[in-house]
Amino acid sequence: MNSLNRTGAPSMTDGGVYSGTPLMLGGYMSGFFTNEYAGQELHVSNTQQLTLNGDNIGGYLQDRWRELYLGISRANNAIKYIPETPELSDAEKNQLLAEAKFFRAFAYYYLVRWFGPVPITTEPYESLENLYLERSPIAAVYALIESDLKEALEHGDLPTVSMVDNGKRVTAGAVATLLADVYLTMSGNPLNSNRYADAASLTQDIINGVYGSYGLVGHNESSPGVVDLENSAYNKIRKGDASAIEHIYIKEYDPEISTSVYPRYSYPVALASEVLYDITNGGYQPSQGFLDLYDSTEDLRVQERQYFHSVFVPTGQTFSPSPFVWHDDTAIFETANSGKDLAVYGYADVLLIAAEAMAKANGVNADAVNYLAQVRARAYWETDLVDIEAELTGLGTDAFVEEVWKERHRELVFEFKNWFDIIRTGQFPVAVSPGSISFVNAVGHTTEQGKQIEQKHMLLPLPGPELQRNPSLGTENNGY
Questions:
Q1: CA of 446: how far to CAs of 29, 190, 197, 366, 457, in Å?
Q2: HSE on the CB side for 53, CA within 13 Å?
Q3: What is the pTM of this model?
Q4: What is the DSSP letter of 354?
Q5: Helices within 13-155 (DSSP H only)
Q6: Cα dist. 366→23, 180, 413 in Å?
Q7: Is 26 helix (H, G, I), strand (E, B) or coil?
Q8: What number of CA atoms fall less than 13 Å from residue 303's CA on the CB side?
Q9: What is the pLDDT of residues 136-147, one digit of tens each?
Q10: Is there a contact between 306 and 247 (Cβ–Cβ < 8 Å)?
């Protein structure tokens, strides 16, 4: 069980300084993000240019496939044998089983969103029988994910505190948030099963404190009514480790055990000589088209040294905008060793899931408006919450939901949700002017890389090596 905190789904946030992390693939496919080592890292260049297939990035995809199924295998082993493990109390068994089911569901959630129909295995492999599994329908994969998460939530005796206050172990809030996200995704492409009411109910419980006390970190003020930009909410989160109030599921890093690579992505290669790391890399640098999704004057997130930065303060040297949220001052200038945790699910995500799901299930009501407004008001730091609520009140469902989508693309960029949202909604965000976004059909849209998105790009190709290993997967490879 301890190993599952590092393998399977959690490993999708790990990577190398050159390669980026697996969850950055969607950003590359959208054309919204680049990696300075794209010419060397073929999985980057082929996804950016939409020339990917099961052969030219097959090795990279095979590694991801293996890591996710390794997590599933370990979870299956735990689920089978924890009930008969001696000297465990019933409460301990329930908690460990809940954690195992959470991680199994999480691994399948990445697999089904990336590859569509995938083999389902729920038993540990203890013989050479049934090695060659066929792909199961997408609906069947989601049914297992939902079942695992409901079991974990309803029978797991998991603590209703933050992960920070639970030794960085999985909590009821983490399970509930993942399940709400699953329901939202099930409601969109390709399943379109309309589980908005379930997502709305679950997020309402999270917001109401059923699974722990969560909220948005607020800004500090330099004087009454004036935000101290150096200690804005975003900088407070950046400077500290995981937030007990805002972060619901985190990937834990520790400088003595497993270090974070993310500070290296906070500067381009050209600045490596100015910091203590031997090499840095703009592995997740936003395009101008992505930056234009933010209002350049009203949105705090896009101001210098908030979400992004482009000036090396000691010398005044400028560079392409890079993620400032991953700037670890101690690691960059003192130790070259970072143990800062990474947010995977936060309270802002819960608020935005709730706003969209409630609007889709029951129409735009005051609660949905307030949840969206909370996220936007923190970003639009010089605009009152009541004014934002007034602007949103009275919108029709479709118009309101598009406002939620806009905020998801802006707010959750470092949780790597953009491409998943494009697939789920079938809509691609295009900046008409800074802060003004229209949505166009994703399929047929030409990215800033000059490449046209096709229907096949809504999934990744199956890894070529896996197709060779397992003839039961068939020959059709997601249109590639």
A1: 11, 21, 34, 37, 13
A2: 7
A3: 0.97
A4: H
A5: 25-30, 42-48, 58-81, 90-115, 138-155
A6: 34, 20, 26
A7: helix
A8: 15
A9: 999 999 999 999
A10: no
